[in-house]
Specification:
This protein has helices at 2-27, 79-85, 181-188, 324-329; strands spanning 31-34, 40-45, 52-56, 58-60, 68-74, 91-92, 98-102, 104-107, 117-121, 133-140, 145-146, 152-159, 163-168, 174-176, 192-201, 209-214, 218-224, 227-236, 239-247, 254-261, 266-271, 274-280, 296-298, 310-318, 341-345, 354-355, 365-367, 372-378. By secondary structure, it is mostly beta strands. A hairpin with a 2-residue loop joins strand 17 and strand 18 (227-236).
């Protein structure tokens, strides 16, 4: 009995504290808040990602006593709040780049989590890559109080690197032969062609450096006898074409492209998406290969000394004429399902001897010796 009496004051104190705590919890108003680990969502835009769907929901601290209805609404006035809070200089995401596909959120009685609001983001690849874009969203409801620090949300979009790996093909070369069954007929009967490559020349100095094609048939190369060693030349069985405007620079990435329409005889050469030179030609298009010394090569044209000293990426062959707009807008990547692609070698595989054809046509390139891979971030920040 003495022991029981001894601990009675302690038991009473604990009971009193517990009772007070329960009363405090009962009196504390239930609140809702955006259910997310942070109040912003950052999306790195890498090329044509198609439509991107994001969802948003709210939760309550305790089960709802009655049904709670809320809405997620775009609030453009919150842009300044975001920029001040994150020390940013973001722009509002243009209206054509998003659609509120569902803004209602409902928490059923007895539940703590709502249904999801939904936003669809589209054509993000068209955004200015130098800018950061934000879509501010706020939650509104008359059915429950909202936690002030968790009632606004920010969808953030910024450009990311489109190319992270490239190949160094100095003293190396690659070939495709034979062309796949699915494309052989297209290659044999070409009347139009577009060839593209993204190049980083470290040095010139040789008589000829090679981009791609077949020696004596249809070839994009750099330099020649009487031609500056940094100047693009299109060499065909019906003569060669070059121009002083087609000179490349060392130690910088440059996109080169050529188009030739055998029906109209128009040949055009582009650098970084800009038309730099054009002519008319009676050339035929021959990139089929003969199975021995005249196959389609990248980084070589018959002579082993005609390698390209530098890095290469985004090599493509088409059986259509790409427009100036198409060339300029797809320097760093292109949708592999785009009509007209014969082969698309991104040069990002990091494999020893094989460079995958991303067009799905099965025209993989085979390297002469083990490839050397370099980590990059393209397009480079300005």
């Amino acid at each position: 009995m003495k022991n029981i009496l001894k601990y009675m004051p302690l038991v009473a104190a604990v009971f009193f504290m517990t009772a007070c705590q329960n009363n405090d919890e009962a009196d504390f108003a239930n609140k809702a808040y955006i259910d997310a680990p942070s109040m912003s969502s950052e999306t790195i835009v890498k090329g044509n990602a198609g439509d991107v769907v994001k969802t948003l929901s709210i939760s309550t601290a305790r089960p709802a006593e009655t049904t709670i209805k809320a809405q997620a609404l775009v609030d453009k006035s919150l842009l300044s709040t975001y920029n001040k809070g994150y020390y940013a200089d973001a722009q509002l995401l243009p209206e054509e780049n998003y659609e509120v596909t569902e803004n209602n959120m409902i928490i059923d009685a007895g539940s703590v989590k709502s249904t999801e609001a939904s936003f669809t983001f589209k054509s993000l690849e068209k955004l200015d890559r130098k800018l950061v874009y934000v879509l501010p969203v706020t939650v509104r409801t008359a059915d429950i109080s909202l936690l002030a620090s968790a009632q606004n949300y920010y969808y953030v979009f910024k450009a990311g690197a489109l190319i992270n790996v490239v190949a160094d093909i100095e003293r190396n070369w690659l070939q495709v032969y034979p062309w796949s069954v699915s494309t052989l007929e297209r290659v044999q009967n070409m009347r139009k062609i577009t060839m593209e490559a993204l190049l980083y020349p470290r040095e010139f100095g040789k008589l000829i450096s090679t981009v791609m094609g077949i020696e004596g048939a249809f070839l994009m190369r750099i330099g020649d006898a009487g031609v500056p060693d940094n100047q693009i030349q299109i060499a065909t069985s019906s003569g060669n074409f070059t121009d002083s405007k087609l000179q490349l620079q060392t130690n910088q990435w440059q996109h080169v492209a050529m188009t030739f329409d055998r029906d109209t005889r128009e040949m055009k050469v582009y650098i970084n998406g800009h038309l730099m030179a054009e002519t008319t030609s009676n050339a035929s298009i021959n990139i089929v290969g003969n199975g021995s010394d005249r196959n389609f090569l990248v980084g070589k044209s018959y002579d082993d000394a005609r390698w390209f000293t530098g890095n290469i990426s985004e090599v493509r062959v088409w059986d259509i004429i790409r427009t100036p707009e198409e060339i300029a807008s797809s320097i760093y990547m292109v949708d592999p399902s785009t009509e007209g692609l014969i082969a698309y070698w991104k040069f990002d595989d990091q494999s020893a001897y094989v460079v995958k054809d991303y067009s799905g046509n099965g025209n993989d390139l085979k390297a002469n010796s083990a490839l050397s891979w370099k980590n990059v971030s393209l397009p480079a920040a300005e």
